[in-house]
Amino acid sequence: MMTVNPLEVDGMYFTAITVELPKTNLLVISNEVGYIMCGALDVDVLNEVLKDRNVIAGRALGVKTIDQLLHAPLEKITDASREYGWEPGMIGKDALLKIS
User: Which helix (H) or strand (E) segment is 58 a member of?
Assistant: First the structure.
């Protein structure tokens, strides 16, 4: 099953996507600028293979819900996201607010 819902974070709106897969969930919170995602995100591919696209994205590990993704530290971020002030270890919610 897949669910797509609007998500309000401190007055700013994002899209929350949950894809229920066998034995795991795929979690994404996005807007028109960038996104944060669960551990399924391959940041190295975005930084190396797709570098010319300047994707703004970050990955949090060990999250199972959208709420956990919002409050988890980003373990890895794309190089392009640094332009928005993102740093590894920052909380997902704080990263999202920097791109709103």
Answer: strand 56-59
Radius of gyration over every alpha carbon of the chain, rounded to an integer in angstroms: 13
CA–CA dist 55, 93 (Å, integer) = 18
Contacts of 92 (CB under 8 A, 6+ apart): 29, 36, 58, 60, 69, 70, 71, 72, 73, 74
SS3 77: strand
User: pLDDT below 50 — which residues of the chain?
Assistant: none
pTM > 0.85? yes
**Interatomic CA distance for residues 33 and 30, integer angstroms:** 8
Helices (H) and strands (E) in the chain, counts: 3, 6
Q: How far apart are CA 77 and CA 55, in angstroms?
A: 10
Is 60 in contact with 36 (CB distance < 8 Å)? yes
Amino acid type, 96: L
